[in-house]
Amino acid sequence: GQLTVPLVIHTPGGGGTCEAAQHSQSLEAWLAHTPGIKVVLPSTPYDAKGLMKTAIRDDNPVYLMQHRLLHDLKGEVPREEYTIPFGVADVKRSGTDLTVIATLLMVHKCLAAAEALASELSVEVIDPRTLVPLDLETIVASVRKTGRLLVVQEACTCGGFGSEIVRQVTEQAFAALQAPPRVLGAVSLPMPFSPPLERAVIPQEAQIVAAMREVATA
Question: Residue 148 belongs to what domain range?
Fold first, then answer.
C-alpha cells in the first residue's frame, strides 16, 4: 500500500470516423478488467475537464478515453477550478418507465432516442461517467424505481462492461426487475472501414428506440 502510480492514460476511441479496427475499437472493458486501473469515460466538455482534473490528482493509474465524435462538442465549462469525483453518475434525464445506462457517444444517442419516445415512455438516462469505480447505488436506485434496465454501449456486446453492470444490478435488485435486463452493443466483428458497414455494426438511434420499446413493454 506504499507505492503510488500517478499515471493518466488519455486516448481517443470509438467509431464513426471510418478508421477501421485499428483506430475505432472500444477498449474500456479491457482496462476495467485490470485491478488497480480506474476507467473514466466523459461524454461532455464539462465532464471531460472535471474528470481530467480529478485523474491528474489521483495517485493511481487512470485510463481516460474520449470519443472521437465528441471532440468538437460544445458545452458550458466554468472558468474557475473544479473537479468531478470518480464514482458519481450523472442522471442526464429523469424517467419512471425504463432505466438506460450509457457512456460516451451512446449517451447522446440514448437521449435522442428517449426524446423520440417521450410521448410513449418516460425513460431515465444515466451516464456513469466512470466504470471503475462504478456508481452502483445510483443505478440500482433507478432500477428499483423503473423495474427495467437497458445498457447501451458502443463496444461489442460479448465481453463488454454492460454485462458487468447487468450482473451487479441483478445481484443487488433482482426482485425489483419486471423484465429481463438487456445489453445493446456493437456487432461482434472487427470495425469496418466502409461507412455503411460501420453504421451497421455500431448501435444507431433507431435500434436504441426499438430496444427501449422492447424492454419497457416486455
Answer: 90-217
Q: How far apart are CA 59 and CA 167, in angstroms?
A: 29
Measured between alpha carbons, how far is residue 131 from residues 102, 164, 170, 175 in Å?
11, 10, 17, 24
CATH of the domain at 144: 3.40.50.920
Distance CA(97)–CA(48), nearest Å, equals 29
Residues 113 and 191 in one domain: yes
Q: Which residues make beta-bridge pairs with 12? A: 66
Confidence (pTM): 0.96
The span from the CA of 175 to the CA of 160, in Å, is: 24
> Predicted confidence band at 50 (pLDDT cuts at 50, 70, 90)?
very high
Residue whose cell numbers read 464514482? 87
The answer to whether the beta carbons of residues 93 and 131 sit under 8 Å apart is: no
| Amino acid identity at 12 | P
